[in-house]
What does this fold into?
Amino acid sequence: MKIHFLGTGTSAGVPMIGCACNVCTSPDPRDRRDRCSVLITWDDPALRVDEKHLAVNPEQAHRRQVLIDTSPDLRHQAIGARLSRVDAVMVTHAHADHVFGLDDLRRFTASMDGPLEVYAEPPVHEALGRMFEHIFQPHRNVNNSFVASLTPLALTTGSAVNLYGATWTPVRLMHGRLPIHGFRVDHGSTSLAYCTDVSSIPPESYPLLQDLDLLVIDALRPRHHPTHLSTDQALDIIHELQPKRAYLTHLAHDESHADLSARLPDHVEPAYDGLTVAMP
It folds into this structure.
C-alpha cells in the first residue's frame, strides 16, 4: 500500500495570494503546498486496465487507486501524478478546499467510460448536492455529456467498507464544532490513517487509530487555531497513538519544510506535495 500526497496545504494554499513571506517566496519546491488531497493505492493482480490508461502511466496496470477529497487543485494534481483512472473517492467533509475539484472527476468518468463511486456521510452528500446540482440532478442540464457520472454512497462512522481487498473505516474527528471523517485503511497486515482538518479527536475514535504503520495528521501551524491542531498538539496525539511513522499535513506558511523538519522527532516528518510513501 502507498500514499501519494497530491496536496498538503491550507485552504489558501502556499504561496498565498498577496504574501511575500519567506515561505511563500521560498525556492524549495517542498514549500509549495496545494490544497489537501491524497491518493491511496494498493496492488490488485486481478485488475485489468485498458491500454489507454497504461499509455498515461504504466504503473496503473495492477493498482487500485482511491482519492481522499477533491481539492480545487485536483486537475493539475492528477496531471502531475499521471492519473487517468481512480476506483473511488472518499470525502472527509464538504468545505470548499476539499471538494471544489469534484467537477474535474468528469475526466475520470469519461476516460473510464462509467460512473465513479463517491463515499461520504449523508450530511456531506446533501451539501455536495447543493453545490453541484448539475452533477447530482443531471436532468436539469442542457448537455449531460460534460458532467461527471457519480454514484453517491453513504458512510457511517466506524462501519468499515471493503474496497477491492482494502478495508476503509470512517473515523469521527472534530473540525472545530463540525464533525467530519478521517479514514483508517487496512490492507493485508498494513494500516494507515488519514486525519486532516482536525482540532480534536473524540475519545471513542482513539481505538480506531491504534496499531498504525502510518498516521497522517493535521498540523496547521505552531500557534493555536480554533479548528485545526497546532504542531505541538499534533505531536502530542502522535505520542499517544504511537504509530510507526507519522506525517504532518494541512500546513500553512508559518514554517518552511526544512525548518519544521529539523525540529520534529525522527519518526515524524512534514509531508510535501508529490511525496509518495510506501508501506510493506
Q: What stands out?
A: The two ends are 7 Å apart (CA to CA).
